[in-house]
């Protein structure tokens, strides 16, 4: 039925009278045989929501009123108790019901999933009728079908067995019985069994499938001819990915989805860029020929590049975004989730209907990379959920050169990790495009209705090696003997269509010729591409471009308003009982806001957030202990001692304030940090913060620092203002609690790619956090935040410091010293300053000045030179650090300090005072720690 006819029926009579009867008849027919109704009606009925029950029949008044199908009143066979069996036939009836369930649970193990036909899997014994005491003599006996959705309540054993084999043992292997929710299991049973796992598609749909396969194959052949031997990680063998993606986009668009963010590694990426996103082939050819992208200092290889475009669907325009991806395979998955969450927040899309994440994986990486598990684990958590992700595994059956299952994983399938969150999994033979289309429709419908992850395991192969320069027969001889004989997916499907007389050979050839002509002419090959996209909801990054690091920034804030916000944060709901120590913290903050008590770290940090919210900047904070703060200084989330309810004062400053999101994260560094990177690259106006429980644990996310945070801008032009708080300090607690690895971050610094700061006063963290958002630069900020300084008697500030100050990259000597008498200048960063200060005061040394470098990168050479200028009589300049010599800032920053020292006075030679080089970051013995600390302080004064 044409859409215009459906619309006319709806508009003219609201489905009353004859129209209503017609729709009721259609729906009744659909319930018994979905293939018997027109495809458009079938699609519409499939997408209507369930009411929460497990049955399939529906009150027809619901159809008349709203076209909403509510599953009610289906008569279902009741389980037969073994004790109630009174006849031989009833005993067999019980066994038939057991067999039906066995097919649902294990039918996938007998399915024909491998297009190469190389899998050798024994058919499970419990799929044979004799396993249940049944014989061929019972095949024509009639049994109740129980919950089997085959359109009738009774059928012969032969009909039941044939229906089960057709549904579960052809080219689709469905795994859904591990799902606890019975409604979801019944939903899958109905959708699969009612069409025997193979719905009938119209010639128009089949023609579109063939056209998409032709495009997928055509691009690979074209590139193989034009650029032979050049790496492209081609999609040959997995061409069904292109029609699969096309269906996800079009079907989700019909649900009202407005944005889709896709993450994938290398395999098939260029094909997706051209045939799904509509990248102009001429631009791709330029990249093959080595054309440099202007504005990127390093750039990246073509199969790492991202892209965005808009395509038209039945539900309107949909924006597509392909995430930039490094070679670290699955690490892009949580980045995509973060980007999607940011887009959903921007659209106020609480349910996840408007923005959809798609993650495309390799089979070996899906099974082998731990970040996959972490990303699954975050999928239903408050702080990281995105309404369900559609996961597509391009299952080449080889991981680089590892193909034996017992070498590549310890599970039956590469997708078994998805069962940990009860995600349904559809294994599908990539050489059956119509089966691929069907499971794609199932996956989209499931995600949209249940808002949970779903996995499509596209079982295919790679026609060439790991890349086009490899010779794969050296490691997979038998597989590649078969691949050499294997006809392509397009060829097989075209033959099936011409055999069925739904398409002629001329029509098939015309699709090939048309695509080749488009490539030759450098034309876009995506027909649904929107040439002039709606840019209304695009993120405008222009305000953050072209600014120098030295640009002026004003982080001052009106004192009276600051105090008003401080008082507002202390307003607790009536009846809300805070814990005793927390009450003392709030009492002290009240005194700090009144100027009656020096300001500590927790107060200053909290006021930075409050003032930014007041100025219109949303804030998102995550970490394993972010609400309280690992060292119990923040308490941004208050917990009621009576009922365990929580209250966030920063969410209740004033009506209509920006979002303040704070989530204690699950115990992950890699996935959570990658998520926050994705979020920050999509939300430039927000302060996005990830705090490590200890700075020491940040190395669990080292891939994110290396591949995204430090180099994303220079490889891909991706700006990111993510802030990372890494608590660090030498407190005598052993190597694992003094291991934030400052040196690693400094080694990553170049070309003004990010900021590394070690603030030492409450006012410094206040202005640093405000600067991160107010200054129109979007550069990652790594903060080595303190532990003991959170409550150090000297690490204090005043209200005036907050209201009138600014972030100081270098803090000069603050005691009153005569510059002419200063002969030794100690440079330092972090907590050691206070140890040096107390030693200098105790010894009443007037010849030593101590200067703090609070920003280690970009190194503030000009500011340091200005601070050093008054000291004309310097004889010694020393860098003092707590870390061992091979760690900390010494190796990465000494050349900056030497340059400033030499410019100040040519005879100055920079000396080192600190721990000796060490394999471990710190010692584990308190007495040894104290000795080392005393020695490095003494060295700073005498070396």
TrEMBL record:
<comment type="similarity">
    <text>Belongs to the alpha-ketoglutarate dehydrogenase family.</text>
</comment>
<dbReference type="InterPro" id="IPR011603">
    <property type="entry name" value="2oxoglutarate_DH_E1"/>
</dbReference>
<dbReference type="GO" id="GO:0004591">
    <property type="term" value="F:oxoglutarate dehydrogenase (succinyl-transferring) activity"/>
</dbReference>
<feature type="domain" description="Transketolase-like pyrimidine-binding">
    <location>
        <begin position="599"/>
        <end position="792"/>
    </location>
</feature>
<dbReference type="InterPro" id="IPR042179">
    <property type="entry name" value="KGD_C_sf"/>
</dbReference>
<dbReference type="InterPro" id="IPR031717">
    <property type="entry name" value="ODO-1/KGD_C"/>
</dbReference>
<dbReference type="Pfam" id="PF16078">
    <property type="entry name" value="2-oxogl_dehyd_N"/>
</dbReference>
<dbReference type="Pfam" id="PF16870">
    <property type="entry name" value="OxoGdeHyase_C"/>
</dbReference>
<dbReference type="InterPro" id="IPR001017">
    <property type="entry name" value="DH_E1"/>
</dbReference>
<keyword id="KW-0786">Thiamine pyrophosphate</keyword>
<dbReference type="InterPro" id="IPR029061">
    <property type="entry name" value="THDP-binding"/>
</dbReference>
<dbReference type="InterPro" id="IPR032106">
    <property type="entry name" value="2-oxogl_dehyd_N"/>
</dbReference>
<dbReference type="Pfam" id="PF02779">
    <property type="entry name" value="Transket_pyr"/>
</dbReference>
<keyword id="KW-0560">Oxidoreductase</keyword>
<dbReference type="Pfam" id="PF00676">
    <property type="entry name" value="E1_dh"/>
</dbReference>
<comment type="function">
    <text>E1 component of the 2-oxoglutarate dehydrogenase (OGDH) complex which catalyzes the decarboxylation of 2-oxoglutarate, the first step in the conversion of 2-oxoglutarate to succinyl-CoA and CO(2).</text>
</comment>
<protein>
    <recommendedName>
        <fullName>oxoglutarate dehydrogenase (succinyl-transferring)</fullName>
        <ecNumber>1.2.4.2</ecNumber>
    </recommendedName>
</protein>
<dbReference type="InterPro" id="IPR005475">
    <property type="entry name" value="Transketolase-like_Pyr-bd"/>
</dbReference>
